[in-house]
Structures are given as C-alpha cells and as structure tokens.
Amino acid sequence: MLRELSFWEDPEIRDGFTNMAVDDWLAEYFETPILRSYRWAPGWGSFGYFIPRAGLPPGPRHWVRRWTGGGIVDHRHDRTYTLFVPRGLELAEARGAESYRTIHVAVAAVLSEAGQAASLSGGTASAPGGECFIRPVEHDVLDGKGRKIAGAGQRRSARGLLHQGSVLADGSFDAARLAGLLAAKVRIMDLDPPSGWIEKRAAEKYRSRNWLERR
C-alpha cells in the first residue's frame, strides 16, 4: 500500500490525444503518487504502444496510440483511470506482473463492494489482434461469468510507473474508493494542467502520423 496518494477527478471530457497528453504531464512532473479518473469525448478508442495501427477493429471513430502497453480498448463504454507512482516507491519498483496484480486486487475490491462479482484471472494468451476485452491475461479482473471487466497497460520510465486502466462497470466503479484502497492517506486535488503544454504534447506526439503509424 502507498503511504499517501493524491486523487484527481478530472472534470473535463477530453479527446484521446489530450487525455494521453495529460497523463504524460502527470508522469513527467509529479513527484508524489497520483490517481486520475477521467472521461473521453464520444467515439474514442485507444490501442497499446506495441499494437499495429493497421487492422484496428470497426467501432470507435477515432483512435489514439497509448504510451503504455496492453491491447485495444473501446472507450465508449468504460470508465478509465491513470495511476502514476514515482521511482523509489515499492509499487513502482515491483515487477510488472506484481504491480498489475496489486492494483487489480484493489479494483476488484471496489467492484465487489458495489455488488459486482469480481475476481482476478489466472491468465491466458492474449486475444488475436490485441482486442483487450475479448480474452483476459494474467491478473485482469473478471466478472462472475469469467468475462473480462477490467484491464490496463503499464509503462516504466526513469521517473516511475504509469498505469492506465479501463473498467467495464455500469456505475459500480468508484475511483475515489480505489484511491482509498491503494493508500493509507488520500489527498483530493483539483488540478489545472497547463493548456499550452498539453496542446503542444498532443500535437507533437499523439496527433502525429509517425506516432499513430509507428507499427
């Protein structure tokens, strides 16, 4: 468990490029752990850093490549959150599978408290094409019928761990409660990301053809 965690319920509905730029800002400038809960403008999906751009499934009208790994996610029907943990803290230094498991134990507990059956997957091979919610991998969250309802992508940098999570839960996922299960002390924050920095990062990185088509 983290000693302290900031929680930010981002009130803005953002497009995919801007959402990813905001997460970059958190990962580059925050010196303490922070959990962001956020929403997407209509029609968006995202795909992991290692997923080929060609052959994305029909559905969302707009796509953005994430900096984290993981598969293809349709954000028209999910709830999303991002956790950044700086280097030196136990969760950031843990092996990928262990940090993934730790966070998803807390996600499953939030869902269970809300009356949603939730447990962790023992793991299988990922789905063809990388569609995230078709087939669970190790430590994904499953419902009572064995269907995947929560997954995530992670990235480790010189600054720490970035974990971007997606939950398929109709009103039963409380990100503030997740913060409370991940940390002994939670500090509510109201952030105002610098618009110039966010717009520049979105334009130069996430909107660029080189980024979208890199694989």
- Please give the CATH class: Alpha Beta
Level-2 CATH architecture: 2-Layer Sandwich
Secondary-structure element order, N to C = EHEEEEEHHEEEEHEHH
Strand content: 25-35%
The largest sheet is:
8 strands, mixed
**CATH fold-level topology:** BirA Bifunctional Protein, domain 2
What is the averaged pLDDT score?
92
| Assembly type | single chain
Question: In what order do the strands lie side by side in the largest sheet?
Answer: 7-8-9-10-6-2-1-11
Q: Helix tally? A: 6
- Secondary-structure-based class equals alpha/beta
Count the strands?
11
Number of domains: 1
Residue share in helix: 25-40%
Shape call: globular
Write the CATH homologous superfamily.
Bira Bifunctional Protein, Domain 2
Termini gap: 36 Å
Could you tell me the radius of gyration in angstroms?
Answer: 16 Å
Walk me through this protein's architecture.
With 215 residues, the chain is an alpha/beta fold. The chain has one domain (2-212): Bira Bifunctional Protein, Domain 2 (BirA Bifunctional Protein, domain 2), CATH 3.30.930. It is built from six helices and eleven strands. An eight-stranded mixed beta sheet has the order 7-8-9-10-6-2-1-11. A hairpin with a 3-residue loop joins β9 (148-156) and β10. α1 crosses α5.
